[in-house]
Design goal:
alpha/beta; 5-stranded parallel beta sheet; single chain; Rossmann fold
């Protein structure tokens, strides 16, 4: 009886932790900018090696469809959209199966592999952040034609704007290639990126955005790919703490930017959505959330595979992704994304009305 009671209690705790909090704020649409953490399929239609529109990606998405999301299921904007009573996923702007009527309640301009720094998007030939803004301007024009100026402007001002970007600037650019390291030390590069973030948010504001979430970095030194790299360098199999320190430092600077912009931009509602500590808690205490595996991912060996290295021909992919924090060597599982999102809804996004 005692063992049964413990099992039932643990199940209830787990279900509570992964449920999504419904939010009653007036949000007309969810509009997304950023990288693979929030890309719902824009990379499908551009010439890049960084794609995920094939199985086993998406095997736990609606209909088991590989949409181009770097997950076995949904990503945070999908859960956020659902929490606000909108559709349970946010479509990609470049996905031709959707049109402006679909995008009126949510649209994603993000591109996997991109960064604040234009040089980051060049690494894997993906959509730079400035181009995401150009697509957004195009979207506004289409929305006004579709709904008229008054209704379109209302959607634009009442939408929640999600920005999630920055990890690639460090892991795929600064630490990997010599150019930026020759120009900036780590602290200077962070300031360089924050300066771009500042101008990006101001541009969104000038285009009508009033409800904005700026996302921070996860503990990027704990990603399976980085842990594998550390092992190959003979540095042990733990998280790369120097990378995590940079993530925390950059998050602190982004938090300061948000505070300053709230004073600078009249009528704006802005929050800093920091995933660092909830992800680190999962990494340190996985069993609390029902996870069994931390250091490797579900797909293939889980050590270094993502994109085309994680495909349905590989026989090693796990049978139950809910036991894993990471789906591929760089990206969280559907369950992890759900937990992160619920945490941010309860702690941060609920401040936006």
């Amino acid at each position: 009886m005692a063992a049964s009671h413990v099992s039932i209690s643990f199940l209830i705790l787990t279900l509570t932790l992964i449920s999504i909090t419904a939010v009653s704020a007036k949000i007309s649409a969810v509009i997304v900018f950023g990288d693979s953490s929030v890309d719902s399929g824009n990379n499908n239609v551009i010439s890049t090696l960084l794609k995920s529109n094939f199985k086993p990606y998406g095997r736990d998405f609606f209909g088991g469809k590989p949409t181009g999301r770097f997950s076995n299921g949904r990503i945070p904007p999908d859960f956020i959209s659902e929490a606000y009573g909108l559709r349970p996923f946010v479509p990609a702007y470049l996905d031709s199966t959707y049109n402006i009527s679909d995008f009126a309640t949510g649209v994603c301009f993000a591109s996997a592999g991109t960064g604040y720094d234009n040089a980051t998007s060049d690494v894997l030939s993906v959509i730079p952040l400035w181009k995401e803004i150009e697509y957004y301007k195009e979207y506004q024009q289409k929305l006004r034609v579709h709904l008229g100026d008054r209704k379109a402007n209302q959607i634009i001002s009442d939408a929640l704007y999600l920005i999630s970007i920055g990890t690639n600037d460090f892991l795929e650019n600064y630490y990997l290639l010599p150019k930026r390291r020759s120009e900036y030390d780590e602290d200077q590069y962070q300031d360089f990126l924050v300066g771009i973030a500042h101008e990006f948010v101001k541009t969104l504001y000038k285009l009508g955005a009033r409800k904005i979430s700026v996302g921070g970095l996860p503990p990027m030194g704990c990603l399976p790919l980085e842990r594998t790299t550390a092992v190959l360098r003979g540095e042990g199999d733990g998280c790369i703490e120097s990378y995590n320190k940079v993530a925390m430092s950059f998050n602190s600077k982004l938090g300061g930017l948000v505070s300053n912009l709230k004073k600078e931009l009249s009528g704006v509602q802005m929050v800093f959505s920091n995933p660092y500590f909830i992800v680190m808690q999962m990494v340190k205490k996985p069993s609390i959330y029902g996870f069994e595996t931390v250091s490797v991912a579900c797909c293939s060996t889980g050590l270094f595979e993502m994109s085309y290295l994680c495909d349905e021909l590989n026989p090693f992919t796990c049978s139950d992704a809910n036991k894993f924090i990471f789906w591929d060597s760089f990206h969280p599982t559907d369950k992890t994304n759900r937990i992160i999102t619920d945490h941010l809804l309860k702690r941060v996004l609920n401040k936006i009305s």
